[in-house]
Every structure is written in C-alpha cells, then in structure tokens.
Write a structure and sequence with these properties.
The complex is a heterodimer of chains A (487) and B (95). By secondary structure, chain A is an alpha/beta fold. Chain A contains 15 helices and eleven strands. The longest helix of chain A has 21 residues, at 373-393. The chains are: A alpha/beta (487), B mainly alpha (95).
Chain lengths: 487, 95
C-alpha cells in the first residue's frame, strides 16, 4: 500500500489498528519525496532526521497510551509553510535575508500540532515573505504545479499546496493574507481553508500584513481540514488579536444535511474576463448544491471592484512597517557598509527580492508624510464598505459561493513582467481577508488541459462550520478530490 | 500619477533600500502605474465612513503584570550576524 497517498483519517485508522508504525508512514512519505521532489521542488528544508526521531517518540505514545479519540494527528506527517517558526529548524520565508534564521521558539500553531503528536516532514517553499500568487517570488526557486510542471502552483503557499497534491505529505499548513491558502489549493486541486481573522493564533508566524494574515490547513479532503482546524484554533495570550470565542468540534457538522441552506451567488464574481471553463465548472457546482437541497440566491457585493486596490494599499503599508525589522542586526543576512546607515541600506538591498522591495516602496510611499490620508486612511474607509457588503449579504444567506480564482494555473513566467496583472489574479480571494470572514476552496472540476478548478465558499465571522458542512456535502457527491496528478 | 526619480530616491531612503539606477527607473514606472490603479478608490465618497483598522471588536488587550518566561540571552543572540557575549555588534555609530 502506498501510505503517502492516504488522508489523515486513513493513516490514523491504520496506526490505531497497529497495522503500520509511525515510522512506516514517515518512510513512505520520504520515499515519495525522493521520487518526485526533483520535479516539484515544494520544500525549502527537508527534516528527515528530526522526522524519524519524532516518529519514534510518537510510536512510544501510540504503544503506551490508549489512543484517545481527540488525538487525531498522532503520527501524521505534515508539511509546514516556511513562514511559521519551528524551534531549532531553519525558517526562511523563502528570503535570502533569513536564509540562515533558526528560530529560538515555536509558533503557537505548530506547538499545538506537536502536542498532538504530528511529525514535521519539512518546510515548504513560498513567495518571499508570502508576497505573491505563484511562488515565482521565492528567493530560492519556483515550485511546479504537480498537474503540469510548466505551470505555477499558485501562491504564496504554493509549496504546501503542491506537496499535498503530489502526496509529498499527508496534509500541510499554510498562511493566507489575500488568498495565499485558497488560490494555490484551487490551482493544485486540494482543499484550502482560511479561518476567520482571530481564529488561529499568529504567534510565531512571520508577519506580512498583520490586519489580514491568518494560518490555515491545506489538505486532500474536507474532513482533514476540519481535523486540523480542531487543533490549530485557539485563543492565545501571546497573540492579542486571537479571539476568545467558543471552539466547536469542526468535524461534528460533516455529513449533516444542507437542505434549505441559503447560498448567495454574488453577481460581481461572474464577470467579463473570467475563464469560460472556470465559469462553467462553478455554475455546475452551484447546480449540484441546489440538487442537494441548497437554495441559491442572487446577491450583490457592490464594492468588489475596489478590493484589489484597497488590499494593495493596506497590505503594502503594513508590510513596509513589519519588514523594517530586517536590518542586519538581530538575525539573518548582513551586508558590509562604511557606516551603520550604509550597512542597513546594503543589507536590505541585497537581502530582499524585487517584489518585496516593490511592496516596501509602495507601502512606504502610502504612509509617507502628506500621503497617509489619501491612501492608507482612504483604503481603511473603503475596507469598511467592503465589510458592510458582506454583513448585508449574510443577513440573507448562510454561505457565499464563488470561483476561487478567475483562471486555472498559468504558465511560469506568464505574469511576472506586470505586477498589476499578478495582483489581479487574487481578485476573488482578497475581499474575504479584508472582511475578516472565513473561506474555503475545494476542487470542483478540471479544464480541458486537465488543470484543477476551485470553488470558494465564504461564511460569516467564526462560522467555519457552515462552509465545512456545505463543502463536505459537495465533496461527498463528487469525485474531483479523488483525482491525483500523474507524476 | 508620475513618480519622479527624486521621489523614488526619497522613498528608498525612508525604506532603507539602496537601489541601482535600473531599479529606480523600473520602480518609478511600476509604482506610477500601480498608484494610478489605486486612484480608483477616489471614485467612492467616504466622507462619513469610519476607517476599519481591524475586523474584530477588540480593544487594548493587557496581560497580567507578573514575571514570566522569556528567551534566554544566548538564544536571543544566536541568530545575530555579529555579537559579543552580551550585545549585538554594529558598525561604529559615533566617531
């Protein structure tokens, strides 16, 4: 049996029945990595030795303890995006400026995974500091889409999505500031969930845009997404933006009837310029939901057209401030210079890649004296309008259904010349971060070129349960999630 | 809106980035077209709209004023490109 192909639930059943050991599972995943990683390039760091140690530790727990129903990832190999701090294990954000950074502490999200006995397989590639939609902005290399090696896997969590689709892990963790979990999940044919802002502690997540960043799971099916949500969600005193809200069992809603649930179809998301095949697949998916008893309602999110501009003012402003800390003093790369100022300027010039510099420049401009009101404050006000759009619509419907991305995976190099074109590929995911609501992308079809297409479901604040319930109902009535790329 | 070379240099200095002549050219034109796109926001009347800095209704979050664990000094210095046993070391600041 090819253990690496399995889901969390399937591996866990085999471990519980003692049919395989934790080491068997880990070995199988590394065999897969050895076979395909040269083609995919999903990982910045592979942690084989540590993983074997973790597997042996976990095996003791499996043997000694009677496995509790709540410990659902004991012995499960996961890949972690390289912007989550892992104590003693290099964490680079795919940036030259952090090429040698070894965190002295563990992020809260991965601490919770450790408590539950997960096995870290490796740290995955991403766009540098999570700025990008394709992994082409990685300071090291571009990850390939497992469905077509000439295409991008999406980004910024492209390494985590590609590793999941290529079965180089059982599941993965990513982060999402403007679509960085959902868009690569859609383009790689896997499930990606961005939780409500405040649901998952961001302590130990290297900051990009603090009012938008959120950590979430990338998995092979919806159940695994719910399982990981149960573990990583928490109120954490170390992150003052983590919310103190009740934590449901996210798996409890799976399998519940969706009859009578109202699904909103926003007319602004079915626009000129959207790929025909994407449109057809998403409309078929809506029909499918209708056949399962959901009630489609046409709705309007009138400020959708302003989301990309709003996002790029806010995200770059916050980034320019957050990235001020990379000064060649406390950690990471340092360049020479004739004095302190010269050292700062050279370190940042040589350490950051072009997209990161561009965004720092844009954010610095927007926040500079005389421009703050015209850009940052204006964008914060438009953000209020976008948030209100969602509040209005959620008075009428339970879940909003949209495409995740206007196109399937594009070719490597196709959009690198024009940053604005690249920014517009996030057009359907960005509003969700601005409004702070949860969103999930699930596979809903393939193009004639055999490239995956994603369906996005958006829920109310702290109502991940509704989107998981609808996503699961759809998944169980289709076969898309069972397809795997030929590698 | 056209961003002049002087503006690019001013912003780069504020951002502590030394840019090559080529980068100044490129960023100047790219920032100009991105800012043109952002002009879109001015189509909207936002006179009485409260800005959203944050989607959650959280106010100041305080922790208890008690002693708690912090990272040991040697761990905090471990990643520094240059340090003594107690301090970060940087190029000379005062002549």
């Amino acid at each position: 049996m090819e253990l690496y192909r399995l889901t969390i639930t399937e591996v866990r059943d085999l471990l519980e029945r003692k049919e395989v050991s934790a080491r068997d599972v880990v070995n199988s995943v590394y065999q897969r990595i050895d076979a395909v990683e040269d083609k995919i390039k999903a990982f910045v760091t592979i942690t084989r030795d540590e993983a074997m140690k973790m597997a042996d530790e976990v095996q003791k727990r499996i043997t000694l303890e009677k496995i509790q129903g709540t410990i659902s990832i004991l012995g499960i190999p996961l890949a972690i995006k390289d912007n989550l701090c892992t104590k003693g294990i290099r964490t680079t954000c795919s940036s030259k400026i952090l090429y040698n950074f070894v965190p002295p502490y563990e992020s809260t999200a991965t601490s919770r995974l450790i408590e539950q006995g997960y096995v870290l397989i490796g740290k995955t590639n991403m766009d540098e500091f999570a700025m990008g939609s394709s992994t082409e902005n990685s300071g090291f290399f571009t990850t390939k889409n497992p469905w077509d090696l000439e295409r991008i896997p999406g980004g910024s969590s492209g390494g985590s999505a590609a590793a999941s689709a290529a079965d180089e892990c059982i599941a993965a963790i990513g982060s999402d500031t403007g679509g960085s979990i959902r868009q690569p999940a859609a383009l790689c044919g896997v499930v990606g969930l961005k939780p409500t802002y405040g649901r998952v502690s961001r302590f130990g997540l290297v900051a990009f845009a603090s009012s938008l960043d959120q950590i979430g799971p990338i998995t092979k099916n919806v159940r695994d997404s719910a399982i990981l949500m149960n573990i990583i969600s928490s109120h954490d005193p170390l992150d003052s933006t983590s919310a103190s809200v009740p934590l449901p069992d996210f798996t409890a809603v799976l399998g519940r009837d969706i009859k009578g649930i109202r699904i909103g179809i926003p007319r602004e998301y079915f626009i000129e310029g959207m790929d025909k095949e994407v449109e057809v697949s998403v409309k078929k998916a809506i029909k499918k939901l209708e056949s399962l008893g959901a009630i489609p309602v046409e709705v309007s999110l009138p400020h959708t057209g302003y989301a990309v501009a709003t996002y790029y003012v806010l995200a770059t402003s916050e980034a320019s401030s957050n990235l001020a800390r990379y000064d060649g003093v406390k950690y990471g790369f340092r360049a020479g210079g004739k004095d302190l100022m010269d050292m700062y300027m050279n370190t940042r010039a040589q350490g950051f890649g072009p997209e990161v510099k561009r965004r720092i420049m844009l954010g610095t401009y927007a926040l500079s004296s005389g421009y703050y009101e015209a850009y940052y404050k204006k964008a914060q006000q438009v953000r209020t309008l976008i948030k209100r759009d969602f509040e209005e619509v959620f008075k009428e419907v339970d879940v909003i259904v949209t495409p995740t991305s206007p196109t399937a995976a594009f070719k490597i190099g196709e959009k690198t010349a024009d940053p604005l074109q690249m920014y517009l590929s996030d057009i359907f995911t960005i509003s969700v971060n601005l409004a702070g609501v949860p969103g999930i992308s699930i596979p809903c079809g393939f193009t004639s070129n055999n490239l995956p297409i994603g369906l996005q479901l958006i829920g109310r604040h702290f109502d991940e349960e509704s989107i998981l319930k609808v996503a699961y109902a759809y998944e169980q009535s289709t076969e898309w999630h069972k397809r795997r790329p030929d590698l | 809106m056209k961003i002049s070379k002087e503006e690019v240099e001013h912003i780069a200095k504020l951002a502590r980035l030394s840019l090559s002549g080529e980068e100044k050219e490129l960023f100047g034109s790219q920032l100009s077209s991105i800012l043109d796109y952002m002009e879109k926001l001015n189509e909207l009347d936002t006179r009485d709209i409260e800005p959203t800095s944050h989607v959650l209704s959280l106010s100041d979050v305080m922790r208890d004023d008690t002693l708690r664990h912090s990272i040991p000094r040697e761990d905090a210095l471990m990643n520094a490109p240059d340090h003594t046993d107690k301090f970060y070391r940087v190029p000379k600041i005062i002549e």
